[in-house]
Design a protein that fits this description.
By secondary structure, the chain is of the alpha/beta class. Helices cover 37% and strands 14% of the residues. The chain contains 17 helices and 14 strands. A seven-stranded mixed β-sheet has the order 1-9-8-7-4-2-3, sandwiched between helices. The longest helix has 20 residues. The structure holds pyridoxal-5'-phosphate (PLP).
């Protein structure tokens, strides 16, 4: 398909990046299960290694199947380029890597996926990076947290475990003022529900493990670049603006312009960190993207029905779904994710910890797993699993209080899911 941004989302999710295989005419994108690619001759090889010509060298850097997925996700997000990698967590490191040097910090929302909190609290310190956690509803606090050493601002569009929607426009204005990029984790929303670049984000990261693949088969991640940030406007981003010793002094921004971040991600990030997505994973995720909008519409429709049903059930204390009028974030749905608030939320069961454990044990359709964004409905009681090591105070701050369960509503029949919750709640609160 030609580059035609005029096409609708449903068309692009099937066609963007893909074309019939030039060798065989295969209509579906083949899984290019190869490590290396034959050079035409020695000059061709030299040009590729010098980044003077774009092409395939070795699958740690680029692979034709993965390249189709990169172009597809970039198109759906409205970016100029994307780099896929081995997981969502890899994507977060790949997004920060070109921006950060030892001593630098990233200003991050307190409302993040639990694994991201751990990655940012502990692991990135080994690189000499620091994360400053701030309540992103307190705009003055976000502003105050940005200092000389800040190199990025990071948040989720619809924050896991659901119910919280970030005012991306307000946050991107603060990042702009600080002269640093806003990175948005768009995993829970997907580009169908929210397009962070349209709200001022510079980079969008994904765990493609979740809704983009959609059926819990492979882990993957992606970093999408809007192409809009001026990396040379200050001396804050030498990896992109200054001569790169590993490429004979090449300056990425000067040489590749809007594609600087994407080229750096491949030529330095994947080359040296090696967090590469494999072509099999790209294949499964490409399959998933073809039905993204259809699934998301159903996830949203089901989540809304189930959240409303739970909210009116006397066995339930509260429900945190932003799609509900009762949610303090309901007013942001229209602006940030007009097609709906996603499929993730938490609810509190009267009867506390014990009732939650019984509920999880009694469900038949819902699966008790540490995942989200599957066609299957999933549930987890964070306090007895992922957040088990935390104090009760920390659990409450993380939205994982002992009486709370998190659900990822699937695409099954809503009536069946409600009946399943009904019978399990009866057992749990008996
Ligand atoms: C799952 C998830 C991640 C991490 O992705 P992996 O593919 O598991 O590494 C990051 N952010 C969010 C919002 C997620 O849901």
């Amino acid at each position: 398909m030609t580059d035609a941004p005029a096409h609708g989302f449903d068309t692009l999710q099937i066609h963007a990046g893909a074309r019939p295989d030039p060798a065989t005419g295969a209509r579906q994108t083949p899984i290019y299960q190869t490590t290396a690619y034959v050079f035409r001759d020695a000059d061709h090889a030299a040009a590729l290694f010098n980044l003077q010509e774009v092409g395939f060298i070795y699958s740690r850097l680029t692979n034709p199947t993965v390249a189709v997925l990169q172009e597809r996700i970039a198109t759906l997000e409205g970016g100029v380029g994307a780099v896929c990698c081995s997981s969502g967590h890899a994507a977060q490191i790949m997004a920060l890597f070109p921006l950060m040097m030892p001593g630098n910090n990233v200003v991050v929302s307190t409302r993040l996926y639990g694994g991201t909190v751990t990655q940012f609290t502990h692991t990135i310190k080994r690189f000499g990076w620091n994360a400053k956690f701030v309540d992103f509803d307190d705009l003055d606090a976000v502003k105050a947290a940005c200092d000389d050493q800040t190199r990025a601002v990071f948040c989720e569009a619809i924050a896991n475990p659901g119910g919280y929607i970030t005012d991306l426009d307000a946050i991107s204005a603060i990042a702009d003022e600080a002269g640093v990029p806003l990175i948005v984790d768009n995993t829970s929303a997907t580009p169908y529900l929210c397009r962070p670049i349209e709200h001022g984000a510079t980079l969008v990261v994904h765990s493609t493990t979740k809704y983009l693949t959609g059926n819990g088969t492979v882990t993957g991640g992606c970093v999408v670049d809007s192409g809009k940030f001026d990396w040379s406007a200050s001396d804050k981003f030498p990896s992109l603006s200054a001569p790169e010793p590993a490429y004979h002094g090449l300056k990425f921004h000067e040489t590749f312009g809007a594609l600087a971040f994407t080229f750096h991600g491949i030529a330095i990030g994947l080359r040296d960190l090696g967090m590469t997505m494999n072509p099999q994973a790209a294949h499964y995720t490409l399959m998933g993207t073809e039905t993204l909008s259809l699934r998301m519409d159903r996830h949203v429709e089901n989540a809304m029905k189930i959240a409303e049903w739970l909210e009116n059930d006397p066995r339930i204390d509260y429900v945190t779904y932003a799609g509900l009028k009762s949610s303090p974030y309901n007013k942001r749905v229209e602006k940030i994710c007009p097609r709906g608030a996603g499929g993730l939320f938490t609810f509190a069961v009267k009867g506390g910890y014990e009732a939650c454990v019984k509920l999880v044990n009694s469900l038949e359709i819902f699966s008790h797993v540490a995942n989200l964004g599957d066609t299957r409905s999933l549930i987890i009681h964070s306090a007895s699993t992922t957040h088990r090591q935390l104090t009760e105070e920390q659990q409450i701050a993380a939205g994982a209080a002992p009486e709370v369960v998190r659900v990822s509503i699937g695409t099954e029949n809503a009536e069946d899911l409600i009946a399943d919750l009904d019978q399990a709640l009866a057992k749990a609160t008996a």
